[in-house]
Amino acid sequence: MDSSTALFNQLKEAQPFFVLAGPNVIESEEHVLHMAKQIKAVTTKLGLPLVFKSSFDKANRTSSKSFRGPGLAEGLKILEKVKTTYDLPIVTDVHESDQCEAVGRVADIIQIPAFLCRQTDLLVAAAKTGKIVNIKKGQFCAPSVMTNSAEKVRLAGNQNVMVCERGTMFGYNDLIVDPRNFEWMREANCPVVADVTHALQQPAGKKLEGGGVASGGLRELIPCIARTAVAVGVDGLFMEVHDDPLNAPVDGPTQWPLRHFEELLEELMAIARVTKGKKQYKIDLAPFREQDSADVPERVKDHIIIIY
C-alpha cells in the first residue's frame, strides 16, 4: 500500500474526526513552524489525526494589492521544512494544472479551491500526482456537483478523494451553510469535510479606506457551524487557525484564535461521540400501534418528556 492510500485510510477511519488546520497563508518560515508546533501539540494531546494546512499563494484575493504569500518555490520549501521538522502531512491548494506536479512532491493532500471545483484539467492533474485530492464545493454549486467532481478524480486513476463544504452564496457578500449538504455530499462516496472558517466569510463585504474592498467574516459563529457539522457526522474538519488573527494578512476575520483551539476541539469531540450522524436513520412508516411503544428501548423511555 502506498503512503497516500495509507494516509487516506487513516483519515477515513479517524474517530471521531480528523483535522486539517493551520494559518491561511504562509507569512514567514518562522511563523509557520511556530503554528505547526502549537497545533500539533493540541491535536496530539487530544488524539486527533492532523494534516497541517497553509497556502503558498492566495491567487484569488479580492484585490490585486493584497498579500498573496511567498509563491510556489519558496512556499513549498517552507512546507517541506514543516513536514520534516514535525513529521506532519501537509495540505495546500493549487490554482493551475502546471503547479500540481511540484506540489505533489511535498504535499500529501492537494486541495482544489472552491472557485475551481469543476475545472476538469486541474482535477485530473491533481489526481495524476497520486496524492489525496480534497475538493472544496463551489459557493455557486449544489452539493450534487461534488459527485461529478470526485468522479473526475477517480476516472483519472486516483481513488483517494475527499469533498469539502464551505458555504453557499446567499445574496451578495454573504454565505450560508446548509446542513443538508453534509448529508447530500455523501453521495460522492468519499469522506466529507466541513470548512468551518471559510464558511463564515462575507466575500468582498468589508470596505477599506481608499475605496477598496476585502472579505469580512463572522468569526464568532465558527463554533456554531462546527457544532452543526460534527453533529451531522462529518469525517473531517478544516479550520484555519492563527495566533494573532487581528493582524493576519489574509482572512483575519475568519481565522480561529490559537488560544481557543483546544477548547473548541474538546467540545466538538464530545458532540461527535454522542451523535449518530454518520449512520443512516431507519424510518419506519408503518401505521403506529399502541403496543409499538413497548418496543421503545428503556434508555429512550427514560428521556421521554410528558407534556400535560
From TrEMBL:
Origin: domain of life: Eukaryota
Similarity-based family: Belongs to the KdsA family.
Reactions listed under catalytic activity: D-arabinose 5-phosphate + phosphoenolpyruvate + H2O = 3-deoxy-alpha-D-manno-2-octulosonate-8-phosphate + phosphate
GO cellular component: cytoplasm
GO molecular function: 3-deoxy-8-phosphooctulonate synthase activity
Protein EC: 2.5.1.55
Protein name according to UniProt: 3-deoxy-8-phosphooctulonate synthase
Species per Swiss-Prot/TrEMBL record: Ambrosia artemisiifolia
SUPFAM superfamilies xrefs: Aldolase
Keywords, comma-separated and alphabetical: Cytoplasm, Transferase
